[in-house]
Amino acid sequence: MADLFPPLATAQVDAKTKVDEKVDYSNLPCPVPYDEVHREAYMSLKAENFEGFRFDFSKGLNQKFSLSHSVMMGPTEVPSQSPDTTIKIPVAHYEFGANYFDPKLMLVGRVMTDGRLNARLKADLSDKLILKANAQLTGEPHMSHSVFNFDYMGKDYRAQLQLGNNALVGATYIQSVTPRLSLGGEVFWAGVPRKSGLGYAARYETDQMVASAQVASTGNVVMNYVQKISEKVSLATDFVYNYFSRDVVASVGYDYILRQSRIRGKVDSNGVTSALLEERLSMGLNFLLSAEIDHKKKDYKFGFGLTVG
Amino acid sequence: MAAKPSLKIKGKGKGTKASSSSSSSKYELVKEWTNWSLKKAKVATQYGFIPLIIVVGMNSDPKPHLFQLLSPV
């Protein structure tokens, strides 16, 4: 408690060092990619809640190559006509996956029993240029989509070109303006619903907090703030507003990273409370518990699972 | 190929349609070829992506055995 009133002498020394730390504008750090502007906030607020039973088994064959087997059983939501009722159909599937991780090439593929393939590729074409591709392919016609991203990493900026099927073209650019502030913009054009959009994002971060905001011409305004309380705890809050449809959602979330477990949860202004617990039972064995309670729609989702390897 | 039969169904209108599209037939051909190749690429990726990862992985260092690929342990 003696820290509350530090002696005046140290206060002067602190102010002096802050003034000496002049910002070197030619040496700014590289900003986070435009898609990850809200990364820290979404770690607590968009945790992967699931419903039903989940079992993931991951087997490594060598340092770079591993296979994964995954079984999921549970009710899956089906889109229904009226927004008040949710229709759920119990479904069980098995998913086989193969991963290859190399410093220069990353390949991840997951295929389900009904033939759906989820493929991801990340290749370092050169020191600064990265190609990323993401595809969800199904047997049904017109239901597959794929996206190719070309990322260029400059000294203190990043630029990305995105090409997708159904004539989707997008570009994003983000630049570090000060050591803590980065600003970015994006523009995209979608061929199938013929519309184009423009967006801006800003991100301010320090060691203890991250604040970010994003505005898009689709009407979405997203603002979030994450504060790291200690090594183990961080709290996040999020505000999403759509100025065309006048939808507002505010949420508050937490993320506790403890020695043997990690628990993340959030409370929403839509009346949704959710939490996800990942507990490490022993080396390589993780136990998952997920709960999502939607009081407004009366939709209760609980799930448990085990991850091996 | 699935795209081609659709032109034959348009019975009587086919004559007039052929004359109007002859000036843009190159563009139509290019579009048709790219659609055909994208469809084939999609089928090839759907069947071949996971085998490709397995082949690339089995040839990486240190080389794993085939037995390790198939056994559940």
UniProtKB/TrEMBL annotation, chain A:
<keyword id="KW-1134">Transmembrane beta strand</keyword>
<comment type="similarity">
    <text>Belongs to the Tom40 family.</text>
</comment>
<keyword id="KW-0653">Protein transport</keyword>
<dbReference type="GO" id="GO:0005741">
    <property type="term" value="C:mitochondrial outer membrane"/>
</dbReference>
<keyword id="KW-1000">Mitochondrion outer membrane</keyword>
<keyword id="KW-0472">Membrane</keyword>
<dbReference type="InterPro" id="IPR027246">
    <property type="entry name" value="Porin_Euk/Tom40"/>
</dbReference>
<keyword id="KW-0406">Ion transport</keyword>
<dbReference type="GO" id="GO:0015288">
    <property type="term" value="F:porin activity"/>
</dbReference>
<keyword id="KW-0007">Acetylation</keyword>
<dbReference type="GO" id="GO:0008320">
    <property type="term" value="F:protein transmembrane transporter activity"/>
</dbReference>
<keyword id="KW-0813">Transport</keyword>
<comment type="function">
    <text>Central component of the receptor complex responsible for the recognition and translocation of cytosolically synthesized mitochondrial preproteins. Together with TOM22 functions as the transit peptide receptor at the surface of the mitochondrion outer membrane and facilitates the movement of preproteins into the translocation pore. Directly involved in the pore formation.</text>
</comment>
<dbReference type="InterPro" id="IPR037930">
    <property type="entry name" value="Tom40"/>
</dbReference>
<dbReference type="Pfam" id="PF01459">
    <property type="entry name" value="Porin_3"/>
</dbReference>
<keyword id="KW-0496">Mitochondrion</keyword>
<keyword id="KW-0626">Porin</keyword>
<dbReference type="GO" id="GO:0046930">
    <property type="term" value="C:pore complex"/>
</dbReference>
<protein>
    <recommendedName>
        <fullName>Mitochondrial import receptor subunit TOM40-1</fullName>
    </recommendedName>
</protein>
<dbReference type="GO" id="GO:0006811">
    <property type="term" value="P:monoatomic ion transport"/>
</dbReference>
<keyword id="KW-0812">Transmembrane</keyword>
<dbReference type="GO" id="GO:0030150">
    <property type="term" value="P:protein import into mitochondrial matrix"/>
</dbReference>
TrEMBL record, chain B:
<keyword id="KW-0812">Transmembrane</keyword>
<keyword id="KW-0496">Mitochondrion</keyword>
<keyword id="KW-1133">Transmembrane helix</keyword>
<keyword id="KW-0653">Protein transport</keyword>
<feature type="compositionally biased region" description="Low complexity">
    <location>
        <begin position="16"/>
        <end position="26"/>
    </location>
</feature>
<dbReference type="GO" id="GO:0005742">
    <property type="term" value="C:mitochondrial outer membrane translocase complex"/>
</dbReference>
<keyword id="KW-0813">Transport</keyword>
<keyword id="KW-1000">Mitochondrion outer membrane</keyword>
<protein>
    <recommendedName>
        <fullName>Mitochondrial import receptor subunit TOM7-1</fullName>
    </recommendedName>
</protein>
<comment type="similarity">
    <text>Belongs to the Tom7 family.</text>
</comment>
<dbReference type="GO" id="GO:0030150">
    <property type="term" value="P:protein import into mitochondrial matrix"/>
</dbReference>
<dbReference type="Pfam" id="PF08038">
    <property type="entry name" value="Tom7"/>
</dbReference>
<dbReference type="InterPro" id="IPR012621">
    <property type="entry name" value="Tom7"/>
</dbReference>
<keyword id="KW-0472">Membrane</keyword>
<feature type="region of interest" description="Disordered">
    <location>
        <begin position="1"/>
        <end position="27"/>
    </location>
</feature>
